[in-house]
Amino acid sequence: MKRILILLFCITCFVNIHSQKITGAVYDDTTKEPISDVSVYLNGTTYHTSTNSKGEFVLTFDKKIRTNLIISHVGYNTISASDPYEGMPEKIYLTQKNILDEVIVDATKNKSKRKKFSRGELLRMFRNEFLGKSKAAQSSKIKNQKEIILIYDYPNERLHARCENPIIIENQYLGYKINFQLFNFYSQYSGSSFNSFFKEVLGAANNTICMGTASFEDISAENNEKIKERRDATYKDSRNYFFKNLISNSLTNKGFEMYIEQVKSREDTSAITNMLNKVSETSENDSYVLQVKIRPEEYFKIEDALSVKKVTLSPPPTDSLTVTSYMGQKVYGWLGISNNEKRSRLLLLRKSFYVDQFGSSYTTDQYGDLDYDEKILFSGGIGDQRAGDILPLDYEPDQKSD
Questions:
Q1: Three-class secondary structure of residue 4 per DSSP
Q2: For residue 367, what are the contacts with CB-CB under 8 A and spacing of at least 6?
């Protein structure tokens, strides 16, 4: 299953306000000297700034989006403040990174008979999994790709990537320049943990994890209608758009259809009439994946939970789950989604989760705080979106697309 996880990219509150600001000064924790050119931004938004020669910064914004304030500089550990609107300390101290933390294990030894990948081949693999393969992704350029360190772990068939500086993405298709601070990236190309069902039904055995923070800069011409149309179309293909309509009970009105996915054998002739697609002409069980249409409001229970919504799955029929576990974790829901002739699949590894009014999904951590939920996995149309398709949290789609 291909997926991308953008951590620290969740919002729980969004209101229009008059222009406000967050101020502070950044210093070296050891020398106590001010640090200039420190990046300061509200994660996942277009609100960003940097410190001056005295280490001071003023970050202005006109939409209060509850997301983390990121304070980052090369050679220092990044600070992520979860509630910056409640008052930041006047002085903020960055600690220098431990050199030992930067040691990279050499996993490039190739004991197989397969040819070793070249740097160019690894870059193409990374681009496909990091940026994606959409029109927006294909038009995107990584301006500092020489700085990206790529390591292929041949024994485990896994590509790792890291970059000391933020990865600079210039996306002309959507009109954004993105500074993406990569925390963790790997793409799994094979492995015994993926059974044949997932390989064949999802169309690929790859599983991609990408964690990081991002700041956006609008580089489009003012009032560019073509760019606006592209952004709105990208938004309608996003998981946020799906979840926003889920909690407002408007999926059906927006053209979504949902199905429980089942596997039936060739001998089940009644099931063939409802067949979505055949798993494989030569599969061992010669089975078919079927779809049974469901009403979202009957399958999901939506409840108020302070400023967010709690979503709980209703108990599905005992024979409705195609699979009961995925990579050692219990599967609570395995659903097909259809919208605008695009098909996606949703795999739920938890029975309940939370969604805010703009469609960001998350769970509660060990302290009871809201945190990004990485147990909600998409494949197909929604799951194919990558860094080349992401929009800032403060982006406002046209009301017709909203």
A1: coil
A2: none
How many CB atoms within 10 Å of residue 257? 15
Residues 284 and 333 in one domain: yes
Residue 216 has pLDDT above 90, yes or no: yes
**Residues 185, 297 within the same domain:** no
| Model confidence band, residue 76 (pLDDT cutoffs 50, 70, 90) | very high
Parallel/antiparallel/unpaired status of strands 91-94 and 14-28: parallel
Residue whose C-alpha is closest to residue 73's, from 57, 94, 55 = 94
Q: What is the mean pLDDT of the chain?
A: 79
Asked if residue 371 has pLDDT above 80, the reply is no
Reduced to 3 states (helix: H, G, I; strand: E, B; else coil), residue 96 is strand
The angle formed by the CA atoms of residues 129, 213 and 17, to the nearest 5 degrees, is 130
Quote the domain boundaries for residue 340: 245-383
Say if 40 falls within a structural domain. Answer: yes
What CATH number has the domain bearing residue 63?
Answer: 2.60.40.1120
The answer on pLDDT for 157 being more than 60 is yes
Number of compact structural domains in the chain: 3
CA-based end-to-end distance of the chain: 28
Q: Is the pLDDT of residue 326 over 80?
A: no
